[in-house]
């Protein structure tokens, strides 16, 4: 009987030790799932719980907790792309970002959908900053495409690269 209790205590102790140590293991971070429906077909966007998600006029704004990365996702159609881009430039200017006229623009096909990618040369607080714009055509059965505005500090761009890649994978889904 004593051996059985000792074994049971050992098992319980080992189980408690495992549970106590669990936070030290690589446990996936809690995440929130946003269902983006503005294009006409809802699809999920996953963001870590610590990141802020704010509803904006035509979509959502997702920001890192340290405010080093901001992603704006909006639904748009060909007729409104100009006003969406100008609205995003206005947002950047209000934040103190200075945009240069030189833009590296290229087209790509991701998941069978045409995507325009733009790297914008810009500065913030006297130093370089990362500004990118992406626009997609509507996917089959969607009535609108996506406008994605990305703004980050160079350090934040590197620090949050894996999270941003996950968010972009959700957005530029096939």
Topology:
Layout: H1 2-21, E1 31-36, E2 43-48, E3 52-56, E4 59-63, E5 69-76, H2 81-95, E6 97-110, E7 113-124, E8 127-136, E9 145-152, H3 154-159, H4 161-171
Antiparallel strand pairs: 1-2, 3-4, 4-5, 5-9, 6-7, 7-8, 8-9
Please summarize what this structure is.
The chain has 174 residues and is of the alpha+beta class. Helices cover 30% and strands 43% of the residues. Strand 7 (113-124) and strand 8 form a beta hairpin.
Structure write-up:
- By secondary structure, the protein is α+β, with helices and mostly antiparallel strands.
- It is built from four helices and nine strands.
- The chain has helices at 2-21, 81-95, 154-159, 161-171, and strands spanning 31-36, 43-48, 52-56, 59-63, 69-76, 97-110, 113-124, 127-136, 145-152.
- The strands form two sheets. It has a seven-stranded antiparallel beta sheet.
- The protein has a single domain, classed as Protein Transport Mog1p, Chain A.
- The N and C termini lie far apart (62 Å).
Record keyword descriptors for this entry.
174 residues, alpha+beta, Protein Transport Mog1p, Chain A, seven-stranded antiparallel sheet, two-stranded antiparallel ribbon, 4 helices, disordered N terminus
């Amino acid at each position: 009987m004593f051996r059985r209790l000792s074994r049971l205590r050992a098992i319980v102790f080992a189980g408690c030790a495992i549970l106590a140590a669990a936070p030290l293991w690589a446990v996936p971070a809690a995440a929130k799932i946003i269902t983006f429906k503005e294009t006409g077909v809802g699809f999920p966007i996953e963001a870590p719980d610590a990141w802020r998600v704010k509803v904006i006029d035509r979509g959502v704004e997702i920001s890192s907790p340290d405010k080093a990365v901001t992603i704006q996702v909006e639904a748009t159609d060909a007729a409104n792309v100009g006003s969406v881009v100008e609205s995003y430039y206005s947002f950047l200017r209000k934040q103190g970002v200075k945009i240069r006229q030189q833009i590296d623009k290229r087209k790509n096909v991701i998941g069978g959908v045409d995507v325009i990618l733009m790297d914008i040369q810009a500065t913030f607080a006297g130093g370089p900053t990362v500004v990118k714009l992406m626009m997609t055509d509507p996917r089959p059965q969607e009535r609108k495409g996506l406008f994605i505005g990305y703004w980050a500090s160079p350090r934040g761009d590197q620090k949050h690269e894996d999270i941003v890649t996950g968010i972009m994978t959700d957005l530029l889904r096939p």
